[in-house]
Amino acid sequence: MSWGEFFYMKGYAFYVWGSYGAALLIFLIEVMLVRHRRKITLQNLRMMRDAGDED
Amino acid sequence: MKLAINWFKYSAPSTFYGLAGKVIPWFAISSAILFAAGLYIGFFVAPTDMQQSEAYRIIFIHVPASILSMFIYLIMAGYAALGLIFNTRLSSMMASALAPTGALFALISLWTGALWGKPMWGAWWVWDARLTSELILLFLYLGYIALHASIDDPRRADRASAVLAIIGSVNVPIIYFSVKWWNTLHQGATIKFTGTSMHVAMQQAMFTVLAACWLYAIAVSLARVRSIILERERNTQWVSELPEAKL
Predict the structure, then answer these.
(1) Domain annotation covers residue A34
(2) Which of B108, B153, B160, B196 is the most exposed place for a label (fewest CB within 10 A)?
(3) Chain A residue numbers touching B231 (CB-CB < 8 A)
């Protein structure tokens, strides 16, 4: 079986790769969002500290 | 007594924050390895299906994502209930950390289901009991997240959304048994308590991806709960003394 045949999936390429592609995309976006949230959270902590202990 | 002390030690957000940070890389790495192994088996070892040709290979992501969307909901509702009954802060934080991940698994389940339904049934979507109850699950997650976000006081937000999560958990058995209770277009359970007719390599691929999804869900929820802990404990001594907050 060639790679071309493999990716063709006997005509079901759109459905099969559309499923796995979307799942991969969702996982990547979630990981990015979680990392971003951590960055923002730590930034806020530092800002709070730099602003003094008024909070 | 000693057991009780350890239990409370790890239910303290300050201890759990550090513990979670240590275990996340291990869950993430083992998840990546299992994903690679499961997809390798699923695409290169498992044979072509006689009836559905190559389209059936969607099963290796569709079934694990669907199982996770239901399990995560129950775990989320369980944590929310613990938080409601015992007033434990960490349980409520865990519940809110699990919701987005559960919602995304429900989304993957619906999306891959649509892409599987189109070539097999000729329709992206039908108002079938299984599909509809899974869609309701997604809305329950979104409702939980929206309700929690709409209440300023985090403790009140925890309590209100816990009630929603607990009531919504009725939907999970409905999803699971929908293919039995109603005459649905969706096929019956692939894995039954009494065994399965699936090819061995197909089972191996599916269970390996399922394990990978579990580990992924644990890693990403723990990473999210760490931010939630910092946000909600920001005025405490231990947070101000964290090295990462001192830079």
Answers:
(1) yes
(2) B153
(3) 41, 44
Interface residue of A5, A41, A44 to substitute, partner B, most B CBs within 10 Å: A41
**Domain residues for A7?**
3-50
B236 touching A, CB under 8 A?
Answer: no
Residue range B117-131, pLDDT digits in tens: 999 999 999 999 999
On whether residue B177 sits in a domain, the answer given is yes
Question: What is the mean pLDDT of the segment spanning B149-160?
Answer: 95
User: Which residue segment(s) compose the domain that B64 sits in?
Assistant: 24-46+56-246
Total number of domains in chain B: 1
* DSSP state letters, A26-53: HHHHHHHHHHHHHHHHHHHHHHHHHT-T
Tell me if chain A has a CB within 8 Å of the CB of B155.
Answer: no
Sorted by sequence, the CB contacts under 8 Å of residue B94 that are 6+ apart come out as B76, B79, B221, B225
B107 touches chain A (CB under 8 A): yes
Alpha-carbon distance of A1 to B117, in angstroms, equals 27
Q: Looking at residue A9, what DSSP letter applies? A: G
- Count of domains observed in chain A: 1
Q: In this structure, are residues A22 and B112 in contact, taking their beta carbons and an 8 Å threshold?
A: yes
Nearest to B55 among A12, A23, A31 (CB): A12
pLDDT of residue B192: 64
Give pLDDT tens digits for B7-47.
566 678 999 999 999 999 999 999 999 999 999 999 999 99
* B65 and A CB contact within 8 Å: yes
Residue A42 lies in a domain: yes
Tokens coding B98: 């699990």
Q: Tell me if A55 is assigned to some domain.
A: no
Which of chain A's residues have a Cβ under 8 Å away from the Cβ of B29?
none
How far is the alpha carbon of A10 from chain B, nearest alpha carbon, in Å? 6
- Dig out the tokens for A49 from the structure: 């500290």
Looking at residue B76, which CATH number applies to its domain?
A: 1.20.120
Whether residue A19 and residue B116 make contact (CB cut-off 8 A), yes or no, is yes
